[in-house]
Design goal:
alpha/beta; 12 helices; binds 1,3-dihydroxyacetonephosphate; 8-stranded parallel beta barrel
């Protein structure tokens, strides 16, 4: 096991601290930018968007990996159009159950049938509007892993929690059941820090604000040998603020809502 969370003073043999080491690990991670379409799309417009993104993602290869998380009905379209391209696809939610009498739910093996590489779990809109708690989010992450799909575990505090200075405590609570899945599971996950107050508001966290939270997330992951996992930032990421956010040492990419529906804007974020 690596350093316990918060033990920033711990020195390693070469004199670097845990924080410095984790940061160096973080900087070595290939950038990952994922679009969350939320409940947007239409067959005809999706086709043009996916075509443009697939073409644009070819010139990014190596420096950034690009993905899109589409509404369930469009997974077949994504699979048909994107197979063999550099653009990967996934879904925005998954059931914690493998199958059975769960009306309206979609199981992870079904997503795998459509070639999904990613699935968002614990997005704040699902936590807030569908009452999902962190234990359920962890179960969903495990269900995704069991089907060979990478869960993108979303965490983040509300404005009220932010203003009360509770960000770290909220993040710790949201992460706890996921961390309890253990290093083997964590080794295959992606994390996304999305402050709720920055989602869809046009008011992104500043690079310094986001970096500070990402660093504490990485410290917590390090305690479970998972310091090398990508940690994406989400919340009003646009082409004109992406470079500042993505230049921070512990920000390994972005989870993009509104701006991912515009091909040129999304590709500019990826290239920022
Ligand atoms: P916006 O980029 O529209 O703020 O949405 C962020 C988000 O919720 C991505 O999952």
């Amino acid at each position: 096991m690596a350093a316990p969370p918060g033990d920033k003073a711990l020195q390693f043999n070469n004199g670097t601290t845990a924080t410095e080491r984790n940061r160096a690990v973080g900087q070595a991670i290939t950038r990952l930018v994922i679009g969350n379409w939320k409940m947007h799309g239409k067959l005809a417009t999706n086709q043009a968007l996916l075509e443009a993104l697939a073409a644009g993602s070819m010139s990014l290869s190596g420096q950034c990996h690009l993905g899109v998380c589409v509404p369930f009905p469009y997974l077949a379209q994504a699979q048909a159009q994107l197979q063999g391209s550099a653009l990967s696809w996934g879904a925005q939610d998954v059931s914690a159950h493998l199958g059975g009498a769960y009306t309206g739910e979609v199981a992870a093996p079904m997503l795998a049938d459509f070639g999904a590489q990613w699935v968002l779990v614990g997005h704040s809109e699902r936590r807030a509007m569908h009452g999902e708690d962190s234990a359920l989010v962890a179960s969903k992450a495990q269900a995704a892993l069991n089907a060979g799909i990478t869960p993108v575990v979303c965490i983040g505090e509300t404005l009220e929690q932010h203003d009360a200075g509770h960000t770290d405590a909220v993040i710790a609570d949201q992460l706890a059941p996921v961390l309890a899945l253990g290093p083997q599971a964590l080794a295959k996950m992606v994390f996304a820090y999305e402050p709720v107050w920055a989602i869809g508001t046009g008011q992104s966290a500043t690079p310094d604000q986001a970096q500070a939270v990402h660093a504490t997330i990485r410290e917590r992951l390090a305690a479970f040998d998972a310091a090398d996992r990508p940690i994406l930032y989400g919340g009003s990421v646009k082409a004109d603020n992406a470079a500042g956010l993505l230049s921070m040492p512990d920000i390994n990419g972005a989870l993009v809502g509104g701006a991912s529906l515009l091909a040129e804007e999304f590709l500019r974020i990826a290239a920022a």
